[in-house]
Amino acid sequence: MERFTIRIVADEAGPAACALCGQAQGPVAGPRLFLADGADPVCRDCGQRHAAELIALLDLAKSAKRLGRVCRHTLIPPLGSLLALARAAEEYAHSSAKPLQHAA
User: Fold this and answer.
1) What is the model's pTM?
2) Phi-psi region for residue 53, left (φ > 0), alpha (ψ -120 to 50) or beta?
């Protein structure tokens, strides 16, 4: 089982390849998913298969950042932005929840 980490990338020099499947990825600044012992990022598809809860957490962080940027100068955030943040939070909660086991 692979171990993953989330790292903040200030700015990437150029495109990188996924550490698991080798798919080319464009340069993206901000939080990214990496193998714990590697320097190459993991693409979203591989991350979804191997670490869905971390991808959901990255989506939640991206939605929160977008909401903060949109609502910086307003008192009341737009409803669409609030709904996107709520959806990302719900997806994170569902991805990290462990299924309950019933006693026999």
Assistant:
1) 0.75
2) alpha
